[in-house]
């Protein structure tokens, strides 16, 4: 698995929000609904220099909506797309802004649970502290390619910005 340390500026996502209380399969249903209704937010989508969408995000949060870690495997999930910061969420959509942070990112190759386990072991090895829920990033130009982003506290600032795609 490919693991990287990186810094990402604050970003905004508009998507469909659900909860683990909605039952098994709720994440897949959120993505299905978001994809079916994406035309409603199409003008808000943040794009690269070539006009391609920056990326899709599966954001996790505790029930406060403050992007804290899930507790006992329970919390909120936002299935959406990165949008311009000043965007307003249309009716039926939810907007979350993710603060600037240092991250450990890992490319998922195989089962997501294994990637989570490997990333957490790497974070522990570096003596870092997870600082909120992890998020999923999907590159729309590479279907099936998923990265997990773990926000971390680090006494040493990360001094580089790692683009998720080469063509920003």
Would you identify the CATH H-level superfamily? Regulatory factor, effector binding domain
Average pLDDT, to the nearest integer? 90
| Terminus-to-terminus distance | 24 Å
Low-confidence runs (pLDDT<50, min 5 residues)?
A: none
The topology string of helices and strands comes to EEHEEEEHEEE
The percent range for strand residues is: 25-35%
Count of beta strands: 9
Structural class: alpha+beta
Would you give the CATH topology? Answer: Multidrug-efflux Transporter 1 Regulator Bmrr, Chain A
Q: Can you give me a brief rundown of this structure?
A:
This protein is of the alpha+beta class and 168 residues long. The chain contains 2 helices and 9 strands, in the order E-E-H-E-E-E-E-H-E-E-E.
For the structure shown, list the relevant keywords.
168 residues, alpha+beta, Multidrug-efflux Transporter 1 Regulator Bmrr, Chain A, 9-stranded antiparallel sheet
Q: Could you characterize the architecture of this molecule?
A:
The protein is α+β, with helices and mostly antiparallel strands and 168 residues long. Strand 8 (135-138) and strand 9 form a beta hairpin. It contains two helices and nine strands, in the order ββαββββαβββ. The protein has helices at residues 26-36, 112-125; strands at 3-8, 11-19, 56-61, 76-83, 94-98, 101-107, 129-130, 135-138, 146-153. Strands 1, 2, 3, 4, 5, 6, 7, 8 and 9 form a nine-stranded antiparallel β-sheet that branches. The protein has a single domain (3-153), classed as Multidrug-efflux Transporter 1 Regulator Bmrr, Chain A (Alpha-Beta Barrel), CATH 3.20.80.10.
């Amino acid at each position: 698995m490919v693991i990287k340390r990186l810094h990402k500026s604050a970003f905004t996502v508009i998507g469909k929000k659900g909860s683990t209380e909605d039952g098994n399969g709720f994440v897949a249903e959120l993505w299905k609904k978001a994809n079916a209704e994406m035309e409603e937010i199409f003008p808000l989508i943040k794009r690269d220099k070539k006009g391609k969408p920056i990326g899709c995000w599966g954001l996790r949060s505790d029930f406060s909506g403050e992007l804290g870690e899930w507790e006992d495997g329970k919390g909120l999930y936002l299935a959406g797309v990165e949008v311009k910061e000043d965007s307003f969420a249309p009716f039926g959509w939810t907007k979350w802004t993710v603060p600037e942070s240092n991250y450990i990112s890992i490319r998922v190759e195989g089962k997501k649970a294994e990637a989570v386990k490997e990333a957490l072991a790497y974070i522990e090895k570096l003596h870092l502290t997870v600082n909120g829920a992890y998020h999923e990033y999907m590159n729309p130009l590479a279907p099936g390619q998923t990265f997990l982003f773990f926000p971390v506290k680090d006494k040493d600032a990360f001094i580089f910005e790692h683009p998720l795609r080469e063509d920003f």
